[in-house]
Structures are given as structure tokens and as C-alpha cells.
Specification:
By secondary structure, the chain is mostly helical. It has five helices and no strands. The longest helix has 16 residues. The chain is flat. The mean pLDDT is 83.
Length: 123
């Protein structure tokens, strides 16, 4: 009786080296996104923010004078406007209203396309 010879393992069509994976960078990136790290970053940003300190001072003055709710609404609007990002050169908004010439982005549905689709289905 002869013993069967073991089949050689098939080689993969690619060979990835461990050094090419950049595992240390990946681990650091993952740890930078942990909730504890993000919370401490946000807390430090609030501690050092002059805008936030200015707002808290105004909020205290407004609440003492009876306009605390108005100042809260103004503060929320101010925060939304201050944290709205700027688009890069050539980048289009998802809302065609804010693009030059009201140009829609690729893949958005406009009424003309929708009407054509409905007419084709109905026929």
C-alpha cells in the first residue's frame, strides 16, 4: 500500500508584505476615534475656545436680564453658522439652489426625468 503524496498548497496570486499594511498607523487611527479620546478633544476645545467663553458670558447676562431663551436661540443659530463648512473650489452642493446656474449634481432626480419615466411606464 502506498501513501498518498500531500498536495502542495496553491500559491496566492499576490503576496502582501506585513510592512505594506501600515498596521501601526491603522491602530493609531482607530484609537484616535475612540469615544474617550473624542470626548476629551471636545472638552479641551471648549475649554480653550474664546467664542464659547464669550457665548457663556452673554448667556449669563441675558438670563439675568430675562432674555435667556432668546439668547439661547441666537446662540444655536450662531453655532450652526459658525460650524458650517466651506466647499472646496469646484465642489458642488447637494442642493442645486446653491450651485452656479442652479446646476444639479449627478444622480439627482429632476422633474423632467421623473416625468419621462412616468410616461414611459404608462405607455
Amino acid at each position: 500500500m502506498s501513501t498518498p503524496t500531500p498536495k502542495p498548497k496553491p500559491k496566492k496570486p499576490y503576496h502582501i508584505k506585513r510592512a505594506d499594511l501600515h498596521l501601526e498607523e491603522y491602530k493609531k487611527e482607530r484609537s484616535d476615534r475612540s469615544p474617550q479620546v473624542l470626548f476629551h478633544r471636545a472638552l479641551n476645545a471648549l475649554k480653550t475656545s474664546r467664542q464659547f467663553h464669550f457665548y457663556v458670558g452673554l448667556q449669563l447676562l441675558a438670563s439675568i436680564s430675562g432674555y435667556g431663551q432668546v439668547m439661547l436661540a441666537v446662540g444655536l443659530l450662531w453655532a450652526m453658522i459658525a460650524n458650517t463648512g466651506k466647499r472646496k473650489e469646484g465642489e458642488m452642493s447637494a442642493y442645486s439652489l446653491f450651485n452656479e446656474g442652479f446646476e444639479a449634481i449627478e444622480g439627482s432626480t429632476d422633474m423632467e426625468v421623473l416625468e419621462r419615466e412616468l410616461r414611459v411606464r404608462g405607455a
